[in-house]
Structures are given as C-alpha cells and as structure tokens.
Design goal:
Blueprint (H helix, E strand, L loop, with lengths): L3 E2 L8 H5 L7 E3 L30 E4 L2 E4 L10 E6 L6 E9 L4 E5 L16 E8 L7 E10 L23 E9 L6 E6 L6 E11 L6 H5 L1 E8 L2 E8 L8 E11 L4
C-alpha cells in the first residue's frame, strides 16, 4: 500500500520535527479538572473546548483516541498523530488535547518563524506527540483537536525580526502519511518506503479509536501492532482480535519522512 504525499509546508524542517522549543505548545494534561480515578474512561474531560478559544472564525476538528503502548522504558519515542483541516487552504489557529489518565502529556510540532501564529507556525496539518509519564502496565490514550481558520487565517510572511540562521530551514523532504481502517479478525500489513536514492529519516505508526469516550482497556489489549524498518522501508503489521464493538471505528496511521533522492 502506498501512502499519499503530504503538503511539506506542514513541517518546514527536520529541526522543527526534533527540536520544538521555539514554537511548540505543551499541553500537559494535569490531574486538576480530571474526574474519576486514573486509568478509567471517567478520567478524562467530557469534551474538548479550547481548540477555538480566542479564534474569531474557527472550525473545530476532533481526532480519535490515540493509543500509547504500555510499559515503555529506556529510549521512549512519542506516539504521533497527524490531524488535518478539511480545506487545503485552511490554517490551524488553535490546538487542544485530553488524556485518558492524568499522566498523559501531549505536544504538537510547529514550524520556526516569527511571530508565532497561524500561517507561519501552523499550516493545514499538525503532528501531535503523546507520552505516558505513569509508566504503567496498561495502554493509555490521548485525543487531539485543532481549530481551523477557513481560507488561511494567517499571513504566510515572516516579520523582519525573524531569526536568521546560517542556513534557512530545509524544505526538501518527502513526507507521506496514510490512514487505513481496521476490521475485526483481519490482519493488516502496511508498507512504504523512500523513493530511489532517498534515505529514511523518520517513521511512526499509531492506532486511533474514534468516539466520544476513551476506548476500554479490553479493546486496547485486543489489537496489537508491530513495526519493522528494513534499510529505507517501513512496515507495520496490525493483529486485531476476532471481535470488535459494532460501532468501533479504528484506523492505523503510518507516517514516513525521507530525503528526496540524495545522500
């Protein structure tokens, strides 16, 4: 299965992927305002309300509950999820996230530029990253949301006080992502790789569970996934349980970032 090419404006440089300090908003999901015991579906806010706060014209877009695997130790890699506005010319004016427990921390990736605003820092799509600070034995989830400004609410120009690096941020990356629906009892294998001459810089996968409430612990345990990188190719295998809830809508998202045919 081949994944669709993204608009590279969503991430202008590899530096923006790995170093988010200049334009990254950390949405730490703290215990305050979270009802119920951690680890249960009652441990999250009932709804997202802040993705359009302060944005005059805003269309809210709510993502699925993204699974963060249990028992991560050592070199912990965040679980990523890309969320897009419906219109190609829309820009993201606000973000929000909630977690299924009080130990979930969420950040999002933005592009370097000054001032920090839509059209400069955010574009049509944004990558959320989730980590579980609890380190428990059960998987947890987070749900991202964005507020979209129709027709592109920010100017794409930079202020004259913008920081001038020795080299401007590199934009020659091949960035692709794709979502695939998961069906009960049907193993799924998704593979993609770099074009000839390109090098794989980053690859990630995540399971998303759409719904108003976090998925149950039993549902999270019923679906497993395995990632494999071979040279410049990325393969993800998903094994779902024999049965799933009738109204379950579950997708696998796979993302890869490659150089565009040079070494």
């Amino acid at each position: 299965m081949r994944l669709s090419r993204l608009n590279v404006r969503a991430i202008t440089s590899l530096r923006a992927i790995t170093a988010l300090a200049a334009a990254c908003s950390v949405i730490a999901v703290a215990a305050t305002g979270i009802a119920g015991a951690a680890g249960t579906s009652g441990g999250a806010r009932a709804a997202l309300n802040d993705e359009c706060t302060g944005v005059q014209v805003c269309v809210p877009v709510k993502g699925p509950w993204v699974k963060i695997p249990a028992g991560q130790r050592g070199r912990i890699l965040p679980t990523e999820w890309e969320l897009k506005c419906a219109g190609r010319n829309d820009t993201i004016g606000g973000t929000d996230a909630i977690g299924s427990t009080s130990t979930v921390a969420v950040t999002f990736q933005a592009s370097p530029g000054s001032p920090v605003r839509s059209g400069v820092s955010t574009h049509n799509a944004v990558i959320f990253s989730g980590l579980d600070g609890g380190g428990g034995t059960s998987a947890v989830t987070y749900r991202p949301a964005i507020g979209c400004i129709p027709g592109g609410g920010g100017s794409g120009t930079r202020s004259r006080v913008s920081y001038q690096a020795t080299f401007p941020p590199f934009t020659g990356l091949d960035i692709r992502s794709g979502d695939t629906a998961i069906e009960a009892g049907q193993p799924l294998r998704v593979a993609d790789g770099c074009q000839i001459g390109g090098r794989l810089l980053h690859a990630s996968s995540a399971l998303g569970f759409f719904g108003a409430k976090p998925p149950s612990a039993a549902l999270l345990r019923s679906i497993s996934s395995h990632e494999e990188i071979t040279r410049d190719s990325f393969t993800v295998t998903v094994t779902p349980g024999p049965t799933l809830p009738r109204d379950a809508r579950i997708v696998l998202q796979v993302r890869i970032i490659c150089t565009e045919g040079f070494h």
